[in-house]
UniProtKB/TrEMBL annotation:
Gene3D superfamilies: 2,3-Dihydroxybiphenyl 1,2-Dioxygenase, domain 1 (3.10.180.10). This is Glyoxalase. Residues 4-122 form the VOC domain. It holds the Pfam family Glyoxalase. It comes from Cryptosporangium phraense. The lineage of its organism: Bacteria, Bacillati, Actinomycetota, Actinomycetes, Cryptosporangiales.
Length: 126
Protein backbone atom coordinates (compact mmCIF):
# COMPACT_ATOMS: atom_id res chain seq x y z
CA UNK A 1 0.00 0.00 0.00
CA UNK A 2 1.21 3.46 -0.87
CA UNK A 3 -0.57 6.23 1.05
CA UNK A 4 -0.58 9.51 -0.87
CA UNK A 5 -2.53 11.64 1.60
CA UNK A 6 -4.19 11.47 4.97
CA UNK A 7 -7.43 13.09 6.13
CA UNK A 8 -9.76 13.12 9.06
CA UNK A 9 -13.46 13.64 8.42
CA UNK A 10 -15.59 15.19 11.16
CA UNK A 11 -19.37 15.55 11.39
CA UNK A 12 -20.43 18.98 12.66
CA UNK A 13 -23.53 21.16 12.61
CA UNK A 14 -21.96 24.33 11.15
CA UNK A 15 -19.42 23.37 8.48
CA UNK A 16 -18.49 26.96 7.49
CA UNK A 17 -17.72 27.90 11.12
CA UNK A 18 -15.26 25.04 11.62
CA UNK A 19 -13.76 25.63 8.19
CA UNK A 20 -13.18 29.33 8.93
CA UNK A 21 -11.63 28.48 12.31
CA UNK A 22 -8.91 26.30 10.73
CA UNK A 23 -8.34 28.81 7.96
CA UNK A 24 -8.08 31.87 10.21
CA UNK A 25 -6.08 30.38 13.07
CA UNK A 26 -4.16 27.42 11.65
CA UNK A 27 -3.30 28.38 8.07
CA UNK A 28 -5.47 25.82 6.29
CA UNK A 29 -6.97 26.62 2.90
CA UNK A 30 -10.19 25.29 1.50
CA UNK A 31 -9.60 22.95 -1.44
CA UNK A 32 -13.21 22.01 -2.11
CA UNK A 33 -16.59 22.91 -0.70
CA UNK A 34 -20.28 22.42 -1.30
CA UNK A 35 -23.41 22.60 0.80
CA UNK A 36 -22.58 20.64 3.94
CA UNK A 37 -18.99 19.86 2.93
CA UNK A 38 -15.57 21.48 3.24
CA UNK A 39 -12.16 19.93 2.52
CA UNK A 40 -9.16 21.79 3.94
CA UNK A 41 -5.42 21.37 3.42
CA UNK A 42 -2.14 22.89 4.58
CA UNK A 43 0.44 20.88 2.68
CA UNK A 44 2.42 20.02 5.82
CA UNK A 45 -0.39 18.38 7.77
CA UNK A 46 -3.23 15.97 7.24
CA UNK A 47 -6.29 17.21 5.40
CA UNK A 48 -9.36 18.00 7.46
CA UNK A 49 -12.85 17.44 6.08
CA UNK A 50 -16.04 18.72 7.67
CA UNK A 51 -19.39 17.16 6.84
CA UNK A 52 -22.73 18.49 8.02
CA UNK A 53 -24.47 16.04 10.30
CA UNK A 54 -27.38 14.24 8.66
CA UNK A 55 -25.96 14.02 5.13
CA UNK A 56 -27.29 11.03 3.20
CA UNK A 57 -23.77 10.26 1.95
CA UNK A 58 -22.81 9.14 5.47
CA UNK A 59 -23.57 5.60 6.61
CA UNK A 60 -27.01 5.62 8.25
CA UNK A 61 -25.82 4.75 11.79
CA UNK A 62 -23.38 7.71 11.73
CA UNK A 63 -25.40 10.44 10.00
CA UNK A 64 -26.35 12.22 13.18
CA UNK A 65 -23.14 11.57 15.11
CA UNK A 66 -21.08 14.58 16.19
CA UNK A 67 -17.29 14.73 16.25
CA UNK A 68 -17.41 14.71 20.06
CA UNK A 69 -14.48 13.10 21.83
CA UNK A 70 -12.21 13.49 18.80
CA UNK A 71 -8.98 15.46 19.11
CA UNK A 72 -7.41 17.03 16.02
CA UNK A 73 -3.74 17.14 17.03
CA UNK A 74 -0.94 19.16 15.46
CA UNK A 75 2.67 18.69 16.56
CA UNK A 76 4.37 22.09 16.39
CA UNK A 77 7.92 23.37 16.78
CA UNK A 78 7.33 26.13 19.35
CA UNK A 79 4.34 25.41 21.51
CA UNK A 80 4.78 28.48 23.71
CA UNK A 81 4.81 30.81 20.69
CA UNK A 82 1.72 29.13 19.24
CA UNK A 83 -0.17 29.53 22.51
CA UNK A 84 0.80 33.23 22.67
CA UNK A 85 -0.24 33.73 19.02
CA UNK A 86 -3.64 32.11 19.51
CA UNK A 87 -4.28 34.13 22.67
CA UNK A 88 -3.38 37.32 20.78
CA UNK A 89 -5.88 36.31 18.08
CA UNK A 90 -8.56 36.00 20.76
CA UNK A 91 -8.85 32.22 20.65
CA UNK A 92 -9.79 30.94 24.13
CA UNK A 93 -7.46 28.29 25.50
CA UNK A 94 -9.82 25.56 26.72
CA UNK A 95 -7.11 23.40 28.31
CA UNK A 96 -4.04 25.21 29.61
CA UNK A 97 -0.51 24.14 28.77
CA UNK A 98 0.22 20.84 30.48
CA UNK A 99 3.30 18.61 30.58
CA UNK A 100 2.76 14.86 30.90
CA UNK A 101 5.30 12.55 32.62
CA UNK A 102 6.11 10.88 29.27
CA UNK A 103 7.29 14.19 27.76
CA UNK A 104 4.21 15.41 25.89
CA UNK A 105 3.46 19.11 26.32
CA UNK A 106 0.12 20.32 25.00
CA UNK A 107 -2.70 22.80 25.19
CA UNK A 108 -6.15 22.74 23.60
CA UNK A 109 -8.55 25.12 21.91
CA UNK A 110 -12.09 24.34 20.81
CA UNK A 111 -13.64 25.31 17.49
CA UNK A 112 -17.17 26.76 17.15
CA UNK A 113 -18.65 23.23 16.82
CA UNK A 114 -16.89 21.84 19.88
CA UNK A 115 -14.09 20.09 17.98
CA UNK A 116 -10.96 20.06 20.14
CA UNK A 117 -7.73 21.16 18.47
CA UNK A 118 -4.67 20.16 20.47
CA UNK A 119 -1.19 21.53 19.84
CA UNK A 120 1.72 19.41 21.06
CA UNK A 121 5.45 19.40 21.37
CA UNK A 122 7.71 16.87 23.04
CA UNK A 123 10.43 17.20 25.67
CA UNK A 124 12.71 14.62 27.24
CA UNK A 125 10.84 13.22 30.25
CA UNK A 126 12.45 13.57 33.67
Amino acid sequence: MRVTACAVSLNVDDVPASSRFLQEHFGFREEMSADGFSSLTRGDAMNVIYLRRGLATLPAPFRDAHAGGVLVVFVVEDLDDEQARLRAEGVPITHELTEEPWGERFFQVTDPNGVIVQLVDWVTPN
